[in-house]
Specification:
Elements (H helix, E strand, L loop, with lengths): L1 E3 L2 E3 L1 E3 L6 E5 L10 H7 L4 E5 L15 H15 L5 E5 L1 H12 L6 E5 L10 H13 L4 H6 L8 H15 L3 H6 L4 E8 L6 H9 L2 H6 L3 E10 L3 H4 L1 H13 L8
Parallel strand pairs: 4-5, 4-6, 6-7, 7-8, 8-9
Antiparallel strand pairs: 1-2, 3-5
Helix pairs in contact: 1-11, 2-3, 4-6
Length: about 260
């Protein structure tokens, strides 16, 4: 347990002398989501996972903001004293990893972003109202969703505000890619899932195209057939492959 602010983060460090890989979860998931990827890569890597505050085995907090999530990633990296890790983020975690790497480009070996980190602006007042209503309706499912790693130890209102802020952050991600100087590998899902239609997900994923066109460090590693929710379960081998490719890539702008 790593104490940060008013909470404590559950963290797992596999140790070892291999390339450090730090996994950053989705908005309400836990570190368990990465077990297939970690198994596929094997013990020659230094795997570091953690639960964000109020998720998994981590303790509750009074601050579930996106900035707090970025700070917590930094606290984990400081506590483990890793040198130039590969950051692997899924969904919300992709945006968190991208923000941290953009702020400290010399400290990041590479990024693997799993169907997240799209610079997609869509939240308006109607959407905020709908998100809050949806999370209130789902309140009775939270005990089950927590066991499945799909909900946090927070109220319906707190869940909603995390989701709203996450979508607001997405709209401002475009410039973050210009600040990143390490290899970035994207894995995009192709199916829809709860929270959007096929056309909505297609519009979101299309916002990556201008980034790919202007920044040679950002590449689409693969587009997989699974949807946003199932990608770590069905396409973990593709995620592991992107991590291997990123570890081997030395051709980024920092020249190190």
């Amino acid at each position: 347990m790593l104490r940060v602010d008013d909470t404590a983060l559950a963290m797992t460090d596999g140790g070892g002398a291999g390339q450090p890989v730090v996994y950053v979860n989705g908005a309400f998931s836990s570190q368990r989501a990465w077990r297939r990827v970690i198994t596929d890569l094997g013990a020659s890597w230094r795997h570091i996972t953690f639960d964000m505050r109020g998720r998994g085995r981590s303790r509750r907090s009074s601050d579930y903001s996106f900035d707090a999530a970025v700070r917590d990633l930094g606290a984990v990296l400081d506590a483990t004293e890793v040198d130039r890790p590969i950051l692997v983020g899924w969904s919300y975690g992709a945006a968190v990893a991208l923000h941290w790497a953009a702020q400290r480009p010399s400290r990041t070996h590479g990024l693997v972003l799993v169907d997240g980190g799209y610079p997609y602006a869509w939240v308006d007042d109607d959407a905020r109202t709908q998100i809050r209503r949806q999370f209130r309706r789902m309140r009775w499912t939270y005990p089950v969703l927590r066991r499945l790693g799909m909900a946090g130890w927070m109220s319906a209102e707190e869940h909603a505000e995390v989701s709203i802020e996450a979508n607001e952050v997405m709209g401002a991600l475009d410039g973050r890619y210009d600040a990143v100087t390490c290899p970035v590998r994207f894995i995009a899902a192709s199916g829809s899932s709860v929270g959007g239609t096929d056309s909505e997900f297609a519009r979101m994923r299309a916002t990556l195209d201008p980034v790919l066109a202007r920044n040679p460090d950002v590449r689409l590693h693969a587009t997989v057939p699974s949807n946003h929710v199932t990608i770590l379960r069905k396409d973990f081998r593709t995620v592991a492959g992107a991590i291997r490719d990123t570890a081997a890539d030395r051709g980024h702008r920092t020249g190190t």
